[in-house]
Amino acid sequence: MPRAELSQPADSSRELTPKEIVRELDKYIIGQGNAKKSVAIALRNRWRRLHAPEHLREEIMPNNIILIGPTGVGKTEIARRLAKLADAPFIKVEASKFTEVGYVGRDVESMVRDLTEIAVNMVKAEKTAEVQAKAAMLADERILDELVPPLRRTDQGGLAEPNETSELENRKTRDRLREMLRAGELDHRMVEVEIPTSQIPLMQVMGPVSLEEMGINIQDMFGNLFPKKQKQRKLTVAEARLLLTQEEAHKLIDMEKATKEALHRVENSGIIFIDEIDKIASSKGQTSGPDVSREGVQRDLLPIVEGSSVTTKHGMVKTDHVLFIASGAFHVAKPSDLIPELQGRFPIRVELQSLTQDDFVKILTLPRNALIAQYTAMLETEGVALEFDDDAVGEIAKVAFEVNEQVENIGARRLHTILTTLLEEPLFEAPDGLASKTIHVTKQLVLEKLTSIVKNRDLARYIL
């Protein structure tokens, strides 16, 4: 399929407006309105570019963003939720894990290869879902062939059996078993089926670069030399249905078309989140020790962000319109310590604010995945009800804020350690060691469990 046919997004009617994007992010992330607004605009601009006049589409560059703020304020969560909203290929990478060319380690192009693999798997999953019903039907027929083999025919086209009613009886038996199969009545019955097994030889490449990173697909190279062989396996009908459905679905999918669609998604909708980008920014004049390769990583990263073609095992991928979102605390280094060319490729900079005590209260209670809701759900699995007073939640938020101020500001992650410390006893004792099946958390209980730790700063460093 030519690229021109893929220029319009198939799901453009479902695209969210910037305000709708912010409302969706508000369900999971507290505060950080400026950051939400910036990423909402960047995401909506992807849709706008694909609907702009064709002669301008290639000229409209993505609004790459740097999120600046301390740890635990929501930088990574914003990018992750954004990708889910867009249903776009998304990958999170750590800038500090990459090395410049010539050093042992991963090169920056591997992030694009990984993103492409994610996109291919996304499209394959979608295409599989589309043909699932037909694949299940074909799988059922293969199982029926094992349970009730079809009648053999002679070379002249007649039935091998002399009885003229054999074919009708065979069809009736198959129809009856088909109904039982679909009703699950045969799930535990054993059946012998043929499953393809790959005969690709094991290969190992000596050195820091793997075959995957070289973009080499061993299956494609040796597929004809080492064809797949069929292997007889004895399985339950339920297991056989699952395996055969997957096999039939794979046969029904046009993999070439699916790969082209995946490459198109990467190039036009892909999002790469580069965390800890401040770790590859060295302070001016500091060129010794472990910092020797930091600027090299930046220079290797520059062409990827600017727009270049990366070789993957699925084909060439252009990164001109991939959205890059970088983040970093920038405690030691500053954004201006990045090389000027890389700074220019991240035109939007948003500073995220440290979380307040009120923010902690909201984080504990408001989001769909709120921490209190998580712990309540976990203890419910043990038949234990967990209840929090409002003033107890306020006290937890107060303790988290104070410890962040006194020891080290790790943002909302402080709430995890505090709640685990607070609920350590019921989490350990449940379900057999608790006298009551209801745990009522009051402000007094919070004070008893946490005040001594907060006052002893040395102890707080280890526990909180």
Characterise this structure.
- The chain has 464 residues and is α/β, with parallel strands linked by helices.
- The protein contains 19 helices and 11 strands.
- The protein has helices spanning 18-26, 33-50, 54-57, 75-86, 110-130, 132-147, 166-182, 218-222, 237-252, 255-269, 294-306, 340-344, 357-365, 371-380, 390-406, 413-422, 424-429, 443-455, 457-463, and strands spanning 65-68, 90-94, 190-197, 229-236, 271-275, 309-312, 315-318, 323-328, 348-351, 385-388, 438-441.
- Strands 2-5-8-1-9 form a 5-stranded parallel sheet, with helices on both faces. The chain has a two-stranded antiparallel sheet with strand order 3-4.
- A hairpin with a 2-residue loop joins strand 6 and strand 7 (315-318).
- Helix 1 (18-26) packs across helix 2 (33-50) and helix 2 (33-50) packs parallel to helix 4 (75-86).
- It is flat, with a radius of gyration of 29 Å.
- The model is unreliable at 1-13, 202-209, 211-215 and 287-292 (pLDDT under 50).
Q: What labels describe this entry?
A:
464 residues; alpha/beta; two-stranded antiparallel ribbon; flat; disordered N terminus
How is the topology of this model organized?
Elements: H1 18-26, H2 33-50, H3 54-57, E1 65-68, H4 75-86, E2 90-94, H5 110-130, H6 132-147, H7 166-182, E3 190-197, H8 218-222, E4 229-236, H9 237-252, H10 255-269, E5 271-275, H11 294-306, E6 309-312, E7 315-318, E8 323-328, H12 340-344, E9 348-351, H13 357-365, H14 371-380, E10 385-388, H15 390-406, H16 413-422, H17 424-429, E11 438-441, H18 443-455, H19 457-463
Parallel strand pairs: 1-8, 1-9, 2-5, 5-8, 10-11
Antiparallel strand pairs: 3-4, 6-7
